[in-house]
Specification:
Layout: E1 2-8, H1 13-24, E2 34-41, E3 44-51, E4 56-61, H2 68-75, E5 80-83, H3 95-105, E6 110-111, E7 114-118, E8 124-128, E9 138-142, E10 147-154, E11 157-167
Parallel strand pairs: 2-6, 7-11
Antiparallel strand pairs: 1-4, 1-5, 2-3, 7-8, 9-10, 10-11
């Protein structure tokens, strides 16, 4: 399966996908990978879903050439900017980029928060979630906001993405749980 990247107006990704589904049919398969973040507003913590790659929609295709008739139909949809790397000759995203995209697709519609612990040297250890496998790409950790800044390389560009995490309690050595096990 090949994936084509379409650049759209930032903030209008979901509108574009809805319009694309109406134009191309329900089975278009276009998607916007999202991430879940905890946002503090007016003293309350809210969970928000935000696009992982703002301004980009990914469209799966069976072949490595995008049909011309579909290309013109997509270009007529509101909020469309361009196909990547070139609107006249779109090409599927490369193998490395597809691996990054597949990592986030594996978590479903929205990459939820990761479960982490901190070791004795205060380094982050990912137990499960979207950060699993990206430990070497973590640039900065903000414990207060429960976010990790990850450097992703995609489409010959490097950019930072915030991913949320939840700190799990580390079992205390020598403690006994309710089952009587240490």
């Amino acid at each position: 399966m090949e994936y084509f990247a379409i650049q759209v107006w930032t903030g209008k990704e979901d509108d574009f996908v809805r319009s694309l589904a109406l134009t191309m049919g329900v089975g278009s398969g276009a998607f916007v990978p999202k991430r879940a973040l905890s946002i503090r507003r007016r003293g309350k913590i809210l969970r928000e879903e935000r696009p992982l790659f703002p301004g980009y929609v990914f469209l799966p295709c069976d072949s490595d050439t995008f049909p011309v008739d579909k290309r013109w139909a997509i270009r007529s949809i509101n909020h469309f900017l361009r196909f990547l790397p070139d609107s006249l000759a779109p090409r599927p995203i490369k193998e490395h980029d597809r691996a990054v995209l597949s990592h986030f697709i594996s978590f479903g519609k929205c990459a939820d928060t990761s479960k982490v612990i901190f070791d004795e040297n205060q380094r982050i250890v990912v137990l499960e979630g979207p950060l699993k496998g990206l430990e070497g790409l973590i640039v900065r950790v903000d414990k207060r906001k429960h976010r990790a800044k990850v450097r992703l390389d995609m489409c010959r560009d490097s950019f930072l993405v915030d991913l949320g995490f939840e700190v799990m309690e580390r079992p205390v050595k020598g403690s006994v749980d309710s089952d009587g096990k240490a």
